[in-house]
Design brief:
Elements lengths: L6 E4 L8 E5 L7 H12 L3 E5 L10 H9 L3 H18 L5 E6 L1 H10 L6 E5 L5 H4 L6 E8 L5 H13 L4 E10 L12 H19 L3
Parallel strand pairs: 2-3, 2-4, 4-5, 5-6, 6-7
Antiparallel strand pairs: 1-3
């Protein structure tokens, strides 16, 4: 479905039980994000991807960093809250999931600390161990083998914090990958690993959110 009110929306052809908030990385709402939403809808889930950059996208890390730095945090939070509220309405109050990549993954995890989700799938993003204690929904974490932004101990401490809080967490590190490996619109895309990770993500979200 075309973008509406600053979001891309994809709905199942039949009734969808669960909803998924999809939050893009620092490159913006590129075509692959819409594709992922469509694939979630094909799996029986209602998916919406807010455009946090108001139509702007980046093609290289420098541009992406500039767009991310220019974001208004309060406005971004309001957009995400509105998108979640819309999903809840569309699913009749059904279970809610979050899916985020890098910057978007960080935002999804922040929302998870408020109890917004019944499940969260996140690619190469983490909070600190103290924040992890406030996340109580199941978490799926996909990590790159080489991540220029965060050392492995950042993710180790986050996972340890989740487990200490009794939160179910599955963390996978994908060999031969770098940060952004799941972004099909950038040079660091690793198609084989991204496809396998995506299959696991869809299954995780279906298992926890349900679909007809």
């Amino acid at each position: 479905m075309p973008d509406q009110e600053g979001c891309y929306l994809a709905e199942p052809s039949g009734p969808g039980r669960g909803g998924v908030l999809v939050v893009h990385d620092w490159y913006g709402l590129l075509p692959h994000v819409r594709t992922l939403c469509d694939e979630l809808a094909a799996a029986g889930l209602v998916a919406t991807a807010p455009d946090l950059y108001d139509g702007r996208t980046a093609s290289d890390p420098e541009q992406a960093e500039a767009l991310m730095d220019a974001m208004d945090s309060a406005k971004t939070g309001a957009k995400l809250d509105a998108a979640i509220a819309d999903l809840r309405e569309r699913t009749g109050g059904g279970p809610m999931g979050g899916l985020g990549f890098s910057m978007g993954g960080f935002r999804v995890l922040l929302q998870a600390t408020t109890g917004a989700f019944d499940a969260a799938a996140v690619y190469y993003a983490a909070l600190d161990a103290e924040q992890a204690a406030s996340i109580h929904c199941p978490v799926l974490l996909h990590l790159a083998e080489r991540d220029e932004f965060d050392p492995p101990e950042v993710f180790d401490q986050f996972v340890a914090g989740l487990r200490a809080a009794g939160t179910p967490v599955e963390a996978r590190t994908w060999p031969g990958t770098e940060h952004s490996f799941a972004n099909a619109d950038v040079a660091l895309h690793a198609p084989t690993q991204a496809a396998e990770a995506w299959s696991i993500t869809v299954r995780f979200l279906r298992d926890h959110l349900g679909s007809p």
